[in-house]
Amino acid sequence: MTKSGKKKILKHPPHWKDDFSVDWDATDYVSRREFTRFLGLSSVGMAVGTTLIAGVGSAVKPVREAEPLRLGRVEDFPPGTSKAFEFPEKGQYSLLVRHEDGSFSAYGQKCPHLGCAVYYEPHDRVLECPCHEGFFDAKTGDVISGPPQRGLNVVELEVRDGELWAVGGGGH
Ligand code: FES
């Protein structure tokens, strides 16, 4: 615009138009609405794709069930004692506790804090992690005190014809 308010018409187009020339008549314009629609459809497509991948991934994931493990005859475990055993897999340890009232509990032996092995402390009737003084209720596996944020993994037990079996749970 000039000072008088009239539009200044250039006799020659600026040089940059030669370098970055655009043939506007031959160009396909994309309106804001079309671009927004494209973004919306792309987002929906990605969401559907992600959901399908997640669904297929969880559908084909094999569910590993532990082989039941015979631990011994019930009378082999005096009240107030504990015993470590490999369950649910080789190299993973669980801890069986026979309480003073004759009932049993078992837990994955790995502390949920940083993975140290817990042991049974019969005097206080708790499971203790020696690494950072984590304490767990021997009857429930719940945290009593210390840094662990969750309890121990419970091993499911069954008594079959006077024999004690680990049948599920445990692990890390
Ligand atoms: S590893 Fe058990 S309390 Fe830290």
TrEMBL record:
The keyword Zinc-finger does not apply. The chain crosses the membrane at residues 38-60. Keywords: 2Fe-2S, Disulfide bond, Iron, Iron-sulfur, Membrane, Metal-binding, Transmembrane, Transmembrane helix. The keyword Iron-sulfur applies. It comes from Deinococcus rhizophilus. Residues 69-166 form the Rieske domain. This is Rieske 2Fe-2S domain-containing protein. InterPro entries: Rieske_2Fe-2S, Rieske_2Fe-2S_sf, Rieske_Fe-S_prot.
